[in-house]
Design brief:
The protein has about 325 residues and is α/β, with parallel strands linked by helices. The protein folds into three domains: about 1-210; about 210-260, no CATH class; about 270-315, no CATH class. It is built from 14 helices and 13 strands. A hairpin with a 2-residue loop joins strand 9 and strand 10 (about 195-200).
Length: about 325
Amino acid sequence: MPQLQALPERPVTSLELTEENAKIIAKFYLQKPYENVTMEFLESKKFEEFLKEFMVNQETPLRVLKFELADLKILQDPLKSRTSLLQVRRIYLDVSDTNQLAPIFQLLNSYSLKKVILRIVPDFDIDGIEFLENWKRSGLLILALKFENISLRNLESINKLLYYWSTFSHIDIFYNSFEYNPCKFFDVPFEKLSENSIRIELSPRNRLAPSLVKLKLSNETSLKVLGNPLVMGNVLKYFKVFDIQNLRKTCNGIRSCVDHLKPDPQIEGYTIDMRVYSDSYANIELPGYRNSKSIPYKRGEISKVSRLSENNKKREIL
C-alpha cells in the first residue's frame, strides 16, 4: 500500500494509534537513526486496511503498542492476519469492556510482554482479566490501571487481583479523582508514587494479609496444602513473629498446623514497661535495624501484662 511504502526502510519499534477530530492518527517510532513518522486517516476502512498490512509485515518486536481507539476489534482483526504471535514489550489499551481483552492477548507473545497498561472505564470488571493468570507463561507482568474517577467498586475489583502473585509483580493504580480514597482501602503495604497514584507489590508478605488469605483459602485444595506440616514448615522459616500472627488468623486448620510446629518467632528482646498511672507497654525487638514494635496495654489490662511478665516466654505472644 502507498502509506506503508511511505515509511522509511527501517524497523518500526513503537506504534501509537489515537483518534482526534474525527481522524485516526498513527505515529511510528523508528530504529536508529531515531525518528518518528505520523500518518492521518479520515476513513476508518482505509486505516483498517493499512493496519492489517502493517501487522502482517511487522517482524521486529515492538517496544510499545499504544492503542487508544474505542473498538478493540479494530486491533484484533489485523493481529489475526499474522502468521506468528506479535512480540510487544509494553501494551497500552483503552478498555470499555474487559472481556474484549482475552481475544487480543491470545494473539500476543506471552514471553515478550512485560507491562500492561489499561485505561479503565468506571464499570471495571475483574472477570475480564482473570485469563492473564494462565496466559502469562514466563516471568511476571507489571499491571498499570488508569482511572478518571476511581470508585469503591473499582477498588474491590483490584483487591481481588492482589492474590494473582504468580502473574503480576506489582500493580500500579493511577486516578485523577476518587469516590473512596485508595490509600485508606487496601490492608496491604503500598508505595505512594505521586499524589494520585500508588504501587502495590505482590510480595510474600502482602500475600499473607488476612483478608487476602481468607479470600484465597476458600479453595479447599489450598487449605490442605498449607495445612501440611512439611509445606508449612518450609514457609515458616522465612517468617518472624508478626508474620506468624497474621498467618494464624486465616483459619483453624492453619492455626493448628502453626501451633503444632511451634516456629521460632525470632525475637531478640522482649521488655515490659509497667506504670501505675498510665498505660503499660510490651516492647518487642526483632533482628534488623530499627525493627521493633511496642504494644500498648490500657490500665485495665495490667493484669494481662503481669501474666506475660511472669511467664516470659517468646511464644506466649503467638
